[in-house]
Request: fold
Amino acid sequence: MNYYISDLHLFHKNVTDEGSNFENRPFKTLDEMHRVLKENWNSTVTNGDHVYILGDLSWKENDDTIQLVSTLRGNKHLILGNHDTVNDQRYRQLFVEITNYKEIKDGDYRVVLSHYPLAFWNHQSHYRRDGEAQKVWSVHLYGHLHDSADEQYYREFIQRLNQNGICCIAKNVGCMLNYMNYTPRTLKELLS
Reply:
């Protein structure tokens, strides 16, 4: 099974009440956030599953991060975000792969994965210019925007594309979004 999640921001105190809590996460401390994220992750993901982390996994690359990430189940694929550094070989070896962008097949779907939302992506539209259905099209999964005004602007952009004949699906997998609830999700869950 494939799972998707982004923007966990491990060891970033400003996503909890220990810091500025700039996005109002429901955690008083980093320890509480880490405990909830780990419980949700490990109660969902098995060691045979693949988890695509769409960036900003951790604020720091240190022994604490290495220890915590090593306890998360599954085969972890890291799509790099703006806060990810992977210089420590001990950290790098926790991932099946580390890349900036990825295209995969998940069941009947093709999926384009990046930390940043894309305006246009490979096999984006469900229909050709002549109105006929495409045989191949892709869902775009991304992170980075959290639950922000930028996310709302991007959603409006995607809605306008759909209204103007470029029928496409893009979904934010930021862990803090209500439908994510700090838990890796399958594509089926994201699309329902």
Summary: The first strand starts at residue 2 and ends at 5. The beta strands are 2-5, 50-53, 75-79, 95-99, 101-106, 109-114, 138-142, 169-172.
